[in-house]
Amino acid sequence: MELRTLRYFVAVAEELHFGRAARRLHLSQPPLSRAIKQLETELGAALLDRSPQGVALTPAGAVLLDEARALLGRAERTRQRVAEAAGAVTLTLGILGDGGDPRAKRLADAYRRQHPRVEVHVREADLSDPTCGLHAGAVDAALTRGPFDETGLTVHGLRADRVGALLRADDPLAGQVALSVADLTDRRWFVFPEGTDPLWQAYWNGGRPREGPEVRAVQECRQAVLWNGTVGLMPLDHPAGEGLTVVPLTDMPPSRLVLAWRESASTPLIHSLARIATAVYGS
């Protein structure tokens, strides 16, 4: 059994849906289905019950899920220990491309002071993947925003930011002191691509399905508003951009800034990052 195949199985077992698991892993569905079939052949056991109603774990599949999580966690810890022994310690950090939080530099400086020998690889993710590649195993930890599917993840809250409606500066609503989501009901919104985490999509669309131009990056959000007069949400402390403004929304819960990592791949370096991030963003 390959670790990659076990990661595939864990994704399917946690999602109980091949399509969602494929999106989580950033794969197309056919190779994922073939990999699971091959795993069942190798083990000589059916791991999943497939039916028109969906996917369910068999008793053998439930056992493999527990064992696979343990194996993947041990593999990650082994990789970390070997890297430390070799003097080549790395940490891959996913960062949501949400416009550049000014405290990110303070976090980088503080982490570098405490771990000068750790090489940090930064992977910037677009807005279609709020976990920044965590579910796919592409990063060790993610500095991102909720809400999203937290299955198999540890999510550590850092800060809660108020949000507002991003509008053209000449929009009829731009001069309001505050707005409610209901004030934007009849407007077109920018939306994220199909397959985006539904919790994430729902939050940034004000809790209901919307229609409008599809975006993947913060700059695309701004341009969609600027060129089309659409609306969307943005944290109040982020710069709106030239020709745009952000009006506070009174009935939207705050946007949570979080640090997240896989439960099966927790390491001392990640826990140290969480402690430092808490100090930086809580100050």
Strand tally is 10
Largest sheet, in brief, is:
5 strands, mixed
Q: Which percent range fits the helix content?
A: 25-40%
Rg from alpha-carbon coordinates: 21 Å
The helix/strand order is: HHHEEHEHEEEEHHEEEH
Low-confidence stretches: none
Structure class:
alpha+beta
Verbal overview:
This protein is an alpha+beta fold and 283 residues long. The protein contains 8 helices and 10 strands. It has helices at 3-15, 18-25, 29-43, 59-86, 103-114, 198-204, 218-228, 268-282, and strands spanning 48-51, 54-57, 90-96, 119-125, 141-145, 153-161, 163-168, 232-235, 244-248, 255-262. The longest helix has 28 residues, at 59-86. The model has no long low-confidence stretch (mean pLDDT 90).
Question: What would the keywords be for this entry?
Answer:
283 residues; alpha+beta
Compact overview of the structure:
With 283 residues, this protein is α+β, with helices and mostly antiparallel strands.
Task: Outline the secondary-structure elements.
Layout: H1 3-15, H2 18-25, H3 29-43, E1 48-51, E2 54-57, H4 59-86, E3 90-96, H5 103-114, E4 119-125, E5 141-145, E6 153-161, E7 163-168, H6 198-204, H7 218-228, E8 232-235, E9 244-248, E10 255-262, H8 268-282
Parallel strand pairs: 3-4, 3-5
Antiparallel strand pairs: 1-2, 5-10, 6-10, 7-8, 7-9
Helix pairs in contact: 1-2, 1-4, 5-8
